[in-house]
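Re: [help] complex structure
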Amino acid sequence: MKTVIHWFRRDLRLTDNTALHAAASTGAQVVPVYVLSDWKKNHRWTGPNRQHFLCGSLRSLDANLQAIGSRLILRQGDALAELEKLAVETRAEAIFFNRDPDPYGRAVEEKLEKMGQALGIAIKPFKDVAIHEQREVLTGAGDTFRVFTPYSKAWEKLPKPPVVPRIKSLATPAGLASLPLPDNSFWDLPPAAGGVLEAGEKAARARMKAFLDGGLSRYGEIRDLPAGGGTSRLSQDLRYGLLSIRELHQECLKKADSLDAKGRGSAMKYIAELIWREFYMQILWNYPEVLELEFNPKYRGMVWPGQMANLERWKNGETGFPIVDAAMRELRETGFMHNRTRMIAAMFLTKDLHLDWRHGESYFMQALTDGEIASNNGGWQWSAGTGADAAPYFRIQNPWSQTKRFDAKGVYIKRWIPELRDIDASKFQDPPAPGLRLAKGYPAPIVDHSAARDITLDLFKSVLL
Ligand SMILES: Cc1cc2nc3c(=O)[nH]c(=O)nc-3n(C[C@H](O)[C@H](O)[C@H](O)COP(=O)(O)OP(=O)(O)OC[C@H]3O[C@@H](n4cnc5c(N)ncnc54)[C@H](O)[C@@H]3O)c2cc1C
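Output below.
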């Protein structure tokens, strides 16, 4: 082959990139393209933080490609139409890309296959985003898993795909038109929050190294403390494919071998989280209807009776529940929220404010830098009690006792809520007396947790009748 296209999607890296490596291995010239979407302003599934991180990642990818003799070609619009134009323009004989688990990406892949047949171009999809894809991890009877623990046991037993080398050089045809590298104004979006992490493959690799050398061995102990910095902060890097999941998994196993029993336990706990990521991907792959419907059919059609005014209070971090408000303000100010407080904030929206999980799912996608359709939907349906292997509806976390367990000294709460900095942390562990506020300028709780809990139990019981 003389010329092939590599279509970059959520794999914005040169290291251990399966499809890119295969494209380069043909010996042909490679046209590395990314197709920018052409919507403007608000979008249901993204927002300023993610787009900012995407822009930084594209800038870094272009620089990395230039360093090996190539460059990134940027086009904008419908991916299929743009790929067709580019294929005709460059007389490409094949289009290489890594498969996507989400139904929108898959729909394009199907159409691309037909386009390839019509134009006589080879279409070359690869596994990359997950270690195990849609129907690789199956029960003895050949079915997909709906529960995490047996899924993860079966996942661990399967042989793992090898890591492929970083691309060292890439020849790309000269003279191809490309759009300039974008920033948020390209989509008429405001700038990102101040706390969004540095984008690009180099920054992601530095984060991975720092975590493997430090946090991994203590992950089991401190991962649940939102103030602690005890997690890897690699979710946005995995979302945009700045890191390869195969490499991360392999490096964790290698590191685990050098640790004592406790450290190894921590490393295994971390790998279990990486498996949760794949569990939710295979749920989305096999049950794409979860994006619209409750995974558990028993709860489909459920009507959430909450007041919409409370949605804004929740988004703004003004519910009067310090742990929830700290979480929502962390999200607003940094584009990130700790996993423990994601669960608390999500359960609060559904089980205390009785608002439909889809409102929260969509807001998280717009606000998170790591917004990822499969994990986000999985996390929301888990918290709402409607999802695959979800928390049962009657297991309702109490935000006050969660604070006592996971932020006893109020470090996280005080970091994000300046109004509460001078208040004794023990006051964050129980509701204030009726009519009282924790501090001037900070709201009284907008609901009573025990009363809200009873309403939730009745709500679920009524649909189970
Ligand atoms: C309501 C809700 C919404 C969520 N939305 C997202 C989302 O949009 N994108 C996203 O990547 N994660 C999401 N998660 C999962 C989890 O909160 C984040 O992956 C994690 O907080 C990211 O921080 P970290 O990289 O430091 O995590 P670490 O604890 O260091 O975990 C390492 C990696 O494992 C994966 N992981 C960890 N926990 C989970 C989990 N519960 N489910 C799936 N994968 C997991 C992530 O890829 C993460 O980067 C959500 C969880 C909940 C409860």
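The chain has a mean pLDDT of 97.
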